[in-house]
Amino acid sequence: MRVNKGFTLIEILIALAVFAIMATLTSSAMYYAFNTRSRVTEQAERLVDLQMAIIMIERDTEQITSRPVRGNEMRLFPAFTGQPLYLEFTRGGLTNPYSVEKKSSLRRIAWLCKGDKLIRRSWDALDAVNRNNYHDKTLLENIKNCKFAYLDQNLQVLPEWRESSVSSPGNTPTLPKAVQLKIELGDWGTATFLFILPEGLYAKIV
């Protein structure tokens, strides 16, 4: 008559060791899969944010118009001001079909690199009494570096755009030919975008 013997201690220990190894491998695989999926989702969301920011800048610059504004004790601000970290201009093309009150189709817009953020700034009134009353919207975060530049009529890249500093005999420059935006995202490296202005006019003095 055969006698059924139970598992020996060594067999139990081996089984436990194999189970522990399998559990560790499974846990590591699940963690890696979850972490990879999380990173893919994060990168996809970051790409969407970048695309939205570029689309908004493109829409704004496509509607640039050469219209100076007044504000803060009737001080005159140029139609277009460009600095390495700050860009401000007047844009058109806005409609208010459902507004009872008739409003201008023009809007004063600014884009600024502030810290690790790319921000779009807007004012409710074109000629604002107090220019400190504005609305900021963050379009991009976690930026390592951000800088604007400006192309003149000779396609020379300038770090700043001021009407007085780029004037030439017989011409009064109002708008650059294009705006360049260089962004360093850290994880993606550096990307450069060029926004061609619709007119880039240099009005002749008659």
Automatic annotation (TrEMBL):
Name the UniProt record assigns to this protein: Type II secretion system protein J
Keywords for this protein: Cell inner membrane, Cell membrane, Membrane, Methylation, Transmembrane, Transmembrane helix
Broad class of the protein's primary localization: membrane
Compartments where found: Cell inner membrane
Top-level taxon: Bacteria
GO BP terms: protein secretion by the type II secretion system
Transmembrane segments: 12-34
Gene3D superfamilies: GSPII I/J protein-like
Family: Belongs to the GSP J family.
Membrane-protein topology: Single-pass membrane protein
GO CC field: plasma membrane; type II protein secretion system complex
NCBIfam families given in the database record: gspJ, IV_pilin_GFxxxE
